[in-house]
Design brief:
Blueprint lengths: L1 H11 L4 H6 L3 H48 L15 H4 L3
């Protein structure tokens, strides 16, 4: 956003020569820049949502695998029956 603002200020300080070359005006260019920033922001937001969803899926799968091992080997290793992840890490990702 800062770079776009700086670019618009730099273009505005050229005494209108660049706008004649580009065949546009400063308000049109500012609107197009704002639209581009909005699209970039939305793409970043959706990428972040996807990353969070994938992380949650990985954590759920890890919990399922951990519970499967506890169930399969609880007779062979009684210490697994009361096993919890140290520091309660399995609960932290859901909050």
């Amino acid at each position: 956003m800062t770079a776009v603002s700086a670019g618009l200020v730099a273009l505005a300080s050229t005494d209108g020569k660049i706008f004649q070359i580009l065949n546009t005006t400063l308000p049109e260019l500012a609107g197009q820049a704002s639209l581009a920033l909005l699209i970039f922001g939305l793409l970043t937001y959706f990428r972040m949502l996807h990353r969070d969803w994938v992380t949650t899926e990985f954590n759920d799968t890890t919990d399922r695998i951990r519970n499967l091992y506890i169930e399969l080997y609880k007779d062979a290793c009684p210490a697994l029956e009361n096993y919890v992840v140290p520091l309660g890490l399995q609960k932290n990702y859901r909050t």
